[in-house]
Structures are given as structure tokens and as C-alpha cells.
Amino acid sequence: MALYLSIDGGGTKCIAVLFDENLTLLGKGLSGGINTTQNSPETARQHMAECLDQALESHMGQPLHLTYLNLVGDRVMMEQLLRERVEVNAIHHFSEPGAALLAGMLAQEGLVAHAGTGSDAFWVGDIPSLKDIPYERGGVVGSWGPILGDQGSGAWIGQQALLHIVRAVDGWDTPTLMTDLLMQEWGLARPYDMVPKVYRNPAPYRLAASLTKMVGRAADAGDEPALNILAQAGIQMAEQTACLVRRLPYLAAQKQVLCAGGAWKSHIRMFTAFGEHLAKLGITAQPVKPAFDPVAAGPVHTALEQGLPPEHVRCLVAQRFPHLVNTW
């Protein structure tokens, strides 16, 4: 039996699946974020180790035929921790948008609007010439991190929620259900207790990104400030995507753009606002929800390499890895 391991790690979580050549699920791992723009190196290392130990628990010491890595984090550290536990025959590195596209659309070329803990718009595919593209930015808009950018991301949504709550508490913005939800979620006795909660946290942007579900719950209840934040997140993602299409005009012929990343799961308003604003900007590509979470890129790649038709692969992965099926 050949063992395969697929790992996906970013700012909020690290997830892994262990499986065999028949796509039989043998182990799972889930821990916190590993991106050091949102986590300390020590915390990232701890989360990597936890995820690996969970996934490999029942097969520790058995060699891995192939390992798939999709990491926004320290790849050298991950490989070191992995080799301390098992023999690794080969490693296949995915780019973040490449893994999202393969798992999301079973495709290896296309447009990706990624909104996770951070945000960016990507073209995954060939670029005929880079000489006319300023500053060598190529096929990406965004990826600047939470201080310099990440508009429309989970960290951005959470920060906008916190800023609105502060204004509402002080009386110079609209009252919002998010205030009470935040106090419940963080166990605050009074709103001002969020000050030490935020400023003493070693990863404040990851903390902000963790609030996307709370913003989504407020939006579900009809809270206008929450709905507006999510709509603005969709608009910010559309602006980045449109910028990429203007930079690479041949992308105007693309019929679809994949919406990948956890921030999209917060509420449907972000997705609809994204599509509406894309159309307003003259972009004809239609927003598409992903079939699977990015860690499924490993199983999808394995099945496609065996020569299975894409639709058969889609059904097989959904059957063998139901926890990776996208449900938003």
C-alpha cells in the first residue's frame, strides 16, 4: 500500500489528510495557523507538529510515497518536522492558488479570487511576457499582508467589525448586534475589555480573522453594519480581480473566477456583492464556489495522475473525503 499525505497550511489553520492509492482516508490532522505574518515562529512550529502527529498517528514510521505541500509558511520547517517522523520519498509543492484551483475546479489554469486570513487575486497559468508589467507583479494582485493590504480578507473583515463596534460603543456610528456577539464570544464584561484582549494577543490579525463567523451570524440576523462589511469585502475582492484582468487583458476571455478561502464562508452577501461589482466593472467572468477545500488538491492530483476522468474524480473525492466538500 502506497501512502500519500496532503497538507494545507495558512494563517488560520493547518489541515492534513493521509490516504492510499485508492483514495481511502487513513488519517486526518487539524491545528492552528502556520503563517508567521499572523503567528510567531514558535507557535507555527507547534501547530505544524500537532497537525502531523494527528494525521500520521496510526501510520507513524511508515514511509510516504508522495507528500503534497500547500503552505503559506515555512516549508523548510514543515519538511524537517515531517522527516523527523517518517521517511519521505517525494514532495510535490503546490502554490496556494494552484492548490485552490485544482481542488476547487479540478483545473490547472484559471482565475482565483482568494480571501482567507489574507487576500489576493491570482492568474494560475502562463503569462506571455512580464516585461511590460510594472514592478514584476506578474499574475498576482494583493498578497501584501494585513498591515499593507489584505483588503477583503478574513483579517480585514474582523478588523472592520472591531472598528465599527468601537465607533458604535462610543456613539458615533450605528449600533450593531456585533457588539453583544463579540462580548459573548470573547467573554468580555464590558466593551473596553477588548483593548487588552487585542493588544496582548501575540497574533492580533489572526484573532481578527477568527471573527468572520461572528460577523456572518450578525448578518444572518439582518444586522446592517455586518451586511455592509461583508458587501465591502466582496467589492474589495472584485476590485483586485478586475485590476488583474486589466493588467493581463487576455484574461478578459475567462468565463469563471474561483472564490477560494475561508472568508467567503462567512456569509453569502460577500459572494453576491463580488459578482455584482465584477459586472459593474465590466468583468464577464462568473464567480464560482469551490468543489473542495484546498487540501483536497492532493487526492485530486493523485486520481487525475491515474488517468481517471475529472467528473469521476469529483465524485470519488466527494465520497472518500466528505469533510472536504465545500458547503457554503
Task: Walk me through the structure.
- The chain is globular, with a radius of gyration of 20 Å.
- It has 2 domains: 3-99 and 292-324, 2-Layer Sandwich (Nucleotidyltransferase, domain 5); 108-290, Nucleotidyltransferase, domain 5 (2-Layer Sandwich), CATH 3.30.420.40.
- A hairpin with a 3-residue loop joins β6 (110-115) and β7 (119-124).
- α3 crosses α12 and α5 packs antiparallel against α10.
- The chain has helices at 41-56, 75-85, 96-105, 145-148, 154-170, 177-186, 194-199, 204-209, 212-220, 224-247, 268-280, 297-305, 310-320, and strands at residues 3-9, 13-20, 25-32, 66-71, 91-93, 110-115, 119-124, 140-142, 256-260, 286-288.
- It contains 13 helices and 10 strands.
- The strands form 2 sheets. It has a 5-stranded mixed beta sheet, sandwiched between helices. The chain has a 5-stranded mixed beta sheet with strand order 8-7-6-9-10, with helices on both faces.
- It is α/β, with parallel strands linked by helices.
Set out the fold topology.
Elements: E1 3-9, E2 13-20, E3 25-32, H1 41-56, E4 66-71, H2 75-85, E5 91-93, H3 96-105, E6 110-115, E7 119-124, E8 140-142, H4 145-148, H5 154-170, H6 177-186, H7 194-199, H8 204-209, H9 212-220, H10 224-247, E9 256-260, H11 268-280, E10 286-288, H12 297-305, H13 310-320
Parallel strand pairs: 1-4, 4-5, 6-9, 9-10
Antiparallel strand pairs: 1-2, 2-3, 6-7, 7-8
Helix pairs in contact: 1-2, 3-12, 5-10, 9-10, 10-11, 12-13
